Amino acid sequence: MGIATIIMMASIFLSRVTGIAREMVLAALAGAGTEVDAYRVAFVLPEILNHILASGFLSVTFIPIFSRYLADGEENHGWRTFSNISTVFGALLIVLIVMGMVVAPIVVPLLAPGRQDPQFIALAVKMTRITLPAQFFFFAGGMLMAVQYAKKRFLFPALAPLIYNLGIISGGWLLGRRLGVEGFCWGALAGAMIGSFVIQIIGAFRIGIKFRPVIDFTHPDIRRYVILTLPLMVGLTMVFSTELFSKFFGSFLSAGAIAWIDYAMRVMLMLVGFFGQAVGVASYPYMAQLAVQGRLSELNDIINKILRYLSIVIPVSILVAVLRHEIVYVLFERGQFSPEDTKMTALTLSCLMVGAIAFISQTVVNRGFYATQNTLLPAVFGTIAVVLSLPIYWVGLKMMGVAGVGLAISASAILQTLFLFSVWNRRSNNKAAIGVYRAYLNSALGALVIGAILWLVHGALQISLGSSQTLITNLAVISIVSGVFIILTGLWGWIFKIEAIQYVFSRAASLKLSGKTSDE
Question: What is the DSSP letter of 194?
């Protein structure tokens, strides 16, 4: 599991880096105006389609089904099920894509009701139609990646997000000056086709894929797959609701607000991907194996241990919040991205960092349910939490504008994660969960103390530098404050015996020591 985690952490970290590079190119070429807002909204209908087919959940719904056949020595039956599900739902998806293209002019204005500008709507509809076909490649690639995960092969799936982001960057860079932001959409389509489909076919052949088109609605695994997937299709997950509501409520603000929220989200999600998603994806096949074998106490041990280690994200979130302006400046402020865009994106980023730990933790908690093939409870309770958070979005929008939407996203994430973890603990008799709460409380207390010191250091640096705003000065501030953070965090972990901090520093020391040994 450790090797798989390293592969996925490297992949997701690189995908987030290329994702940030994608945003940097977009910011430089187009800034944060109406065209970029339309580009962001253009991905909402495809995201809804992806959600309806549960394409993003194929790994957690199909892996247990396929893994059961592998465990029973009936791999051929597993490939027949793979062929059946791929054919049936692939055909359905093609129909939905065509329907989506037809109804786009009607649906898009409903997704961003605060923006009724004809130019905005026309741009969003045109780009929606370009990006919709990518969902077929995501679905087909998701099935191909699921069978690779089931056989504990992670390399080719790890390439998918990297190639997707590189496709978007290439499309924007090569076509942006002629087509504007539309070039990024063509790049997204090409990246999805190559990274999520073509490359995954190669990976699937390497594990001995056996596919032939077949449609058999009477097969018990079709019913089993639908039962597992249906709650995910109709439920509102954290990521899906965030993508939907950030555009919906952001549309009631001034032009550029949707873009500010999305730029800030990409920075925050880089942290989420590196810590939470990598561990969640890599650990899931092993969690599913424990669940199949009925070793629930060991499954609880894994979940608790991962969550305790993830508590280190809380002080890291404080660091990002303190350095919000410098981070946004270094990443985005060039070309068409103005100082005002930097200011508003940085403000939103600080609000989003409040809920970063919740975004990260839920990737692990949800997979506990999925490993036991229980997709109903996380869908039901996740949807309840999303609905309960709607008033927070509205109040935040009215009282604080773009910052209020950012805080509402964080509040919704925290509410959903606490809700789901409490349900998991009750159902699995996870009595050791108190250790997770204690670890998060200790980390939060330490983060407040560390954050106060960092705020003072940051303020002193700003006074000494005056009004100077250059790439070099901002990088210097980031380096100095980050260095102080590492020292303070190490001291906190050593003095108060914080498990997550001690683990990270011990691993860093062992890597450094092994490097010296190899040199010698």
Answer: I
Q: Write the burial class of residue 434 (CB in 10 Å: 0-12 exposed, 13-18 middle, 19+ buried).
A: exposed
* Helix residue spans in 44-74 (DSSP H): 44-52, 58-71
Closest CA to 353 of 422, 286, 275, 283: 275
Structure tokens at 115: 């923006």
Work out the number of other CB atoms within 10 angstroms of the CB of residue 72.
Answer: 10
Hunting for tokens 């580009």 — which residue is that? 39
Name the one residue in this structure whose structure tokens are 């359905």: 92
Find the length of the chain. 520
Cα 488–chain centre separation: 29
Give the integer Cα–Cα distance in Å for 268 and 276. Answer: 12
Q: What is the pLDDT of residue 382?
A: 81
The position carrying tokens 């985690």 is: 5
With a CB cutoff of 8 Å and minimum separation 6, the contacts of 518 are: none
pLDDT, tens digit (0-9, with 9 covering 90-100), for 157-214: 888 888 999 999 999 999 888 888 999 999 999 999 999 899 999 988 888 888 888 8
pLDDT under 70: residue ranges of the chain: 1-9, 54-60, 235-236, 274, 276-278, 280-282, 467, 504-520
> Taking a C-beta distance cutoff of 8 angstroms, is the pair 153, 207 a contact?
yes
DSSP 8-state symbol, 95 = H
Whole-number pLDDT of residue 508: 62
Question: How far is 43 from 130, CA to CA, in rounded Å?
Answer: 10
Q: Where are the alpha helices (DSSP H) in 53-181?
A: 58-71, 75-111, 118-131, 134-150, 155-179
* 125: exposed, middle or buried (Cβ count in 10 Å: 0-12, 13-18, 19+): buried
Rounded to whole angstroms, how far apart are CA atoms 111 and 130? 17
At which residue do the structure tokens 């987030």 appear?
A: 16
pLDDT of residue 318: 95
Per-residue pLDDT at 515: 52
Three-state DSSP at 22 gives helix
Select from 374, 229, 302, 290 the least CA-distant residue to 71: 290
pLDDT at residue 517, rounded to an integer: 47
Q: Which of 147, 151, 6, 60 is nearest to 367 (CA)?
A: 60
Residue 8 in tokens: 């996925």
Residue 248 gets which letter from DSSP?
Answer: H
pLDDT at residue 518 in the model: 44
Coil, helix or strand for 376? helix
From the list 253, 256, 519, the residue with the least C-alpha distance to 408 is 253
CA distances from residue 308 to 434, 439, 502 in whole angstroms, order as listed: 10, 6, 12
CA distances from 193 to 161, 163, 392, 475 (A): 11, 9, 38, 37
What is the structure's pLDDT at 211?
85
